[in-house]
Specification:
alpha+beta; elongated
Length: about 1200
Amino acid sequence: MAHKRIRERLRRSALYTFGCLGTRTRDDDQPHALHGAGYTRTVQCNQPHLHENKPPYYCKNNISTTKYNAITFLPTALFEQFRRVANIYFLLAALLSVFPISPFSPISMIAPLAFVVGLSMAKEALEDSRRFLQDRKVNKRNVSHHAGNGVFEPKAWKDIRVGDVVKVEKDEFFPADLLFLSSSYEDGICYVETMNLDGETNLKVKRSLEATLGLDSDETFKDFTGTIQGEDPNPSLYTFVGNFDYERQVYPLDPSQILLRDSKLRNTDHIYGVVIFTGHDTKVMQNSTHSPSKRSSIEKKMDLIIYILFAVLVIISVMSSVGFMIKTKYKAPNSWFLRPDNIEVQYDPQKLGLAGLSHLVTALILYGYLIPISLYVSIEIVKVLQASFINQDIHMYDEDTGTAADARTSNLNEELGQVDTILSDKTGTLTCNQMDFLKCSIAGVAYGVRASDVELAAAKQMASDVDNDSESDGYENNSGWESSKKAPIKGFGFEDERLMNGKWVKEANVDDLLLFFRILAVCHTAIPDYNEVTGTFTYEAESPDEGAFLAAAREFGFEFCRRTQSSVFIREKYTNHGKVVEREFKLLNLLDFSSKRKRMSVIVRDEDGNIILMCKGADSIIFDRLAKNGKKYLESTTRHLNEYGEAGLRTLALSYKRLGEEEYSAWNNEFQKAKTSVGVDREATLERVSEMMEKDLILVGATAVEDKLQKGVPQCIDKLAQAGLKIWVLTGDKMETAINIGFACSLLRQGMQQICITVPNLEAMSASDSTKEAIKDNILNQITNASQMIKLEKDPHAAFALIIDGKTLTYALEDDMKQLFLALAVDCASVICCRVSPKQKALVTRLVKEGTKKTTLAIGDGANDVGMIQEADIGVGISGVEGMQAVMASDFSIAQFQFLERLLVVHGHWCYKRIAQMICYFFYKNIAFGLTIFYFEAFTSFSGQSVYDDWYMILFNVVLTSLPVISLGVLEQDVPSEVCLEFPALYQQGPTNLFFDWYRILGWMANGVYSSLAIFFFTIVIFYDQAFRSDGQTADMAAVGTAMFSSIIWAVNCQIALTMSHFTWVQHVFVWGSIATWYIFLFFYGALSPTYSKTAYQILVESLGPAPIYWVATFLIAVSCFLPYLTHIAIQRCYNPMDHHIIQEIKYYKKDIEDKHMWKREKSKAKQETKIGFTARVDAKIRQLKERLHIKQQHSHHNLTSSPQQQQQANLL
């Protein structure tokens, strides 16, 4: 416990000058002037009961992310169901069916509608209940709150109120937005992890007011009171303006005293805080969006098709009514069998308008089979089954966590096959929050032989272009961690015997090596923590990079073991004849890292009394500050840094400077004056004084750290790029980090032109220009110039990457600029948005979705990704280390980013094609069936008579044609899953909507019209006046109707068999079983008493079965129906085959096994031309090598053709 007490006593405030701590609020600082709208929040500390009445009344702390609640479920869910056009029609038909003019009974119309709507609503309720259970779990979390008299008791989060004093323990989440009062550290600091808010893994340091440092125990809150006045609830994560009235003095508040909900307390035993914002007023909830109602683009288009069919239905119903009115007017009076003297209203020629209207209603109901109500319930069933196949896909199962893929909603399965743009979070999604020290350059010598993930994947890609797949797989298996016999060390992936186990002392530049290792061990702000189990130190660092540097220093023999207020202690193993020596470095000053400075420095005094400045930072910053005699290793180090960057590694340069006593003393006086100054210029003064010290540096070397990508991320991105998908990265990380990850993922590469859009430096602008309009004009110019540069680029292989930060996005997303920004982004090969808030992630997603009118997919793993997941057409959550908020808000969840490849390229492709073909086929079969009813009614003088028995019509969609179409929607595969992955360009059939465009839809409809005409007229011609029975009798209406229905059953089921590319025993049973079911039904239905079977009594056994003309007619009519389709696909496959047609034939003739060269050639063709991913990187490298070879050949040719005198002159030159 000794190390813990030391850490608690340690006052860190003296170490920091920049960065996250900012400036300690002093007693003489002036409070903020808070007036007007936006600053009405008043919080009575430790008196939450004062806020329960209006005014002020603040919201409760319970949250809800569900789409429905108990009150809104019924009306909202019904609205969602009746947004479907067909449901509206069948609702009207059900209402009309209660009247006598309906040709069907009310129950036959109401029951199917109630079943379809009820089933869909039940599914919605089930999916939303999962969100409700997650919300309840969060709301029931407990936190210690002040119950009075200095006693703290547990209390559920949902019961926390504004003004409550809470005590949050280590590794707990903050239950609300809090004012930080004090912590277990005596100088009032705490470490906070904001991964759920901005995606950053590095810890933030927060600090309380000095006035509240005394509130360091439970008893001190017995009589605590105070008043907070500040800003109203808003979504800005990085700002807060307020005042704290405590003990008759007012103190200004800033973001460094605010602890936000859903961030976590780390490396601090406990903190005390006062609740400022609760529930949906908290900043994280202000950044959230309401759960949207999502519909797929196919479903929206299906509504339009149903509008068209409804228009057709109305037209033919009107035609039927007009025909009926003409018949009623001219024929009814002469038809004595209709009893004109006792005629019903709907047949009365004296009331022609009423007769026509009643027949119109009858026709609208009778022809309703044109609009398939069973389509919706069939799609629901198919989508649920598709979702179950996604959930059970063993290839998307993560063995490490035991997590399978989860299709949380089945409404959007087909959308997975139509994605155009992917918007991805970085931390926890692309990366696994782990840094590994991999390579380094010291004194101009490169060390580290292990390849990075990027290098391994690129090498495999290049090998696959030369060797066969087995060879490249062997390469992969012999690389990476598997090649190392010892267990991996967290943060340390370095391999090079020249530096390990003390062998570095035998190197030529041993002094430079010693200094390099000491800089790693000393230049940081971490705190050591001794692990008694392993006997080693772990480090509580502000960033993963620092942890990796300290792990590397430890493995090299320089173990950081202790820190005091003024010193850092290092255990050195190999510098004194193998003995471990603990050395003390007195810490004189620390110039902390910030995103603006891009470097950090420490000034220390070693045991020999030497004063040394150690500095590490971005290479561009360090190189600009080198002394003339400090550039000895500059050229070689620069070359190594370029190589590390190409390998996707994050790099820092290390340098030092030795100081004399007088030089340091003079500078330190200036620094202390700047540090203790008060005013708005304090930070600028500190920066200026620091600049004076951080110059004339001597370069020692550089580090290369790998931000470990999640398994398979580079390969997944490469495959998605080959499939034609665009990938945007939206992250809360710094720009430098985002760029490094871009290189690691091959979203960026060497030679790609980076377009960085940033807010201009206001200090460089005149006072009159530093306004919002001037900033907007500057950003607009940057966007315009970048767009013009892309348009003027002549090189077809040129690639551009757009990089923009959150501040700039604030302006770029405004109405007058967002379309220009989007146009620029679309022209770029990759887009990286950094330092963006959750709200901005959602806004960017909305811009892409609405601006491009194409399908977007957002993927993330934290609460900060919920907004964009809900805003995108498809939201994918990763069940990672950041909690379940993203998963609960998502439509699909997976365990790793790499599974997105299979989710889209395999399941997305299959689901899109299945649903598209299924809907087209549904319209085909219902048109083919429904129009025969119209033809017969016209044939019988618009009598309203149906040629089919009622049970035939009921069973047509429910039994006789339902299972084959479901098997098509669930089991159809144009190509196997492995072929989908080998030929990623097949995916583009979805985004281009190849199988659900108007050409295909109208083609299927035309096929349905043709089939209806063929079935009706061929049946009538064959049976109308031909001998039907052995005694020469002709067929009656029941026989004609049954024969016609038999032809329909054969035609539509044979048609779906021709449509299928993939057959299993299930399809065979469903297709041929449906035809068999028709005859089995006809047999048993005919066997019933005539009371029930009516005109169908014994129709198969006695009437149709013995008649050869029935069987011959059924066969010929069925063949005539699908003959045009068969001819069409035969011609298409011969003269204009699609990609999957070619692959199917190659697989059928086993050319993929017999002719490897052809198979490989076809695979190389099946890649979309892309400028991101490993393929693009390899292609760029090959082009570069070819250009060099071409130049070399030209030079050789020139030497051969030149005269001896020219060659002699060239040699002299």
